[in-house]
Amino acid sequence: MEISIIGGGIGGLTTALALHQAGIPCRIYESVPELRELGVGINLLPHAVRELEALGLLPELRKVAVETAELCYFNKLGQLIWREPRGLEAGYRWPQFSVHRGQLQGLLQRAVVERLGRDALRLGHHLQGYDTASDGSLTLNFIDRKSGSTLPPRQADCVIAADGIHSRVRAMHYPDEGMPVWNGAILWRGVTESEPFLTGRSMFMAGHQDQKFVCYPISAEHYRRGKSYTNWIAELRYEPQALASREDWNRPGVLADFLPQFESWQFDWLDIPNMIRNASVIYEFPMVDRDPVDAWAFGRVVLLGDAAHPMYPIGSNGASQGILDAACITRMLREHASPEAAFAAYDAERRPKASAIVLANRQNGPEQVMQMAEERAPDGFEDIADVIDYAELEAIARRYKQIAGFDKSALNQL
Prior knowledge:
Elements: E1 3-6, H1 10-21, E2 26-29, E3 41-44, H2 46-54, H3 58-64, E4 66-67, E5 70-74, E6 80-85, E7 97-100, H4 101-116, E8 121-122, E9 126-132, E10 138-143, E11 154-156, E12 158-161, H5 168-173, E13 181-194, E14 202-208, E15 211-217, H6 220-224, E16 228-237, H7 259-262, E17 266-267, E18 270-271, H8 272-277, E19 281-289, E20 297-298, E21 301-303, H9 318-335, H10 339-362, H11 368-376, H12 390-404, H13 408-412
Helix pairs in contact: 1-4, 1-9, 2-9, 9-10
């Protein structure tokens, strides 16, 4: 049996490594002619790091990523609402990492080439569709998206579609779904070389649901030098409307569009306008997701990662859930006699969990504590305990960890 993986992002590359480790032949087909280390920062939660450690990737990951020490929520005045330790600092058996998306993808790509061989990663192959033979085998039809020319068809016993939020495979099975759903928020994401803030390994969020700033360091090399290579997200919410066209994930951000709204956010522990102005790169894109669907598995074809469960970048779950998908689908293929049965079991285990996270993120996930503080004390507070009871804050954090699958007591027992 050979599996074709559509998409060479974090989910697809991790799936290839997991399948290879399990002795299952596979090959990745990626649309772009070259995988470049682009993007900004992402987070990897302890349950995802556990799976990467099982693949032998932890030493390389430690070289590039920052081990997150704490997560903090502040109001728009920079007053602390909630602080909690993260990863090893919180007593997990595995760390939480913040890392540049491109560096993580590069790490995974190098591992695929080293372990599976260079021929296992076919670049410049954009899937147009597939045909199913009477014996269940699949013929994959590709084009070179740059030239538009047709490429030779490829044969596969089954397909794992990890081709992102605009998945071609998902569109074939849900042809009326249309564009992703926009919630009215625009995100400006950037990276800035700066001085360390808070612990030097802190992730924080400040503001409320209509205006928010997220910030965390993503470079181990900078941290070792006493500096911070800082990923940040500035978010403003507008009136939601339907997306007229496919969003451009590499659209350059314009300071005049959002910096004025953050000019007063100069806290005694961080100058946010200065952080924004000193960015080396800024991207703009809408905050979008898709509604949960009724099935990910279609015989010998299955969805994975953002193709299955695109979600808001809330709670640090996007990349982590794709990595969990990869581990689960590999386990199911080892435990079941046919790919159809394996994919159905994967669907039954992972789809309800991921769908719950999609819906929880639409309610701001654990970030709802910032909105609570804004509504109850819009002019600030002297003591957060006068505004929100500690038990209420703790319950929100604990409930989201349970939904997202990284409750400490449960995870540490695995």
